[in-house]
# Entry
Amino acid sequence: MSPYSSTLVTTTSINEIIRRYPSALPVLNGFGIDTCCGGAESLAEAARSASIPLDALMAGLTAAIERAVMASSYGTRECGLPSGAPTARAET
# Structure
């Protein structure tokens, strides 16, 4: 499990994810998630619409966010990502 507490859940909208975590955009695009017209969809809805496993999408987002946090720890702070930002996890 990640050392960061999560505030990102499967009900969070795609637009909100991108706003909070700019590093998530390439992951979302890589999975074929509509980040424009489908931005109002929740993470779970977007995964369902793209016919991809939600757990795979969450793992990809978590990895991207953690990489961005690590980079910010070493002085290469990513624009818009606060130090110690939480990771993505499936809502339980």
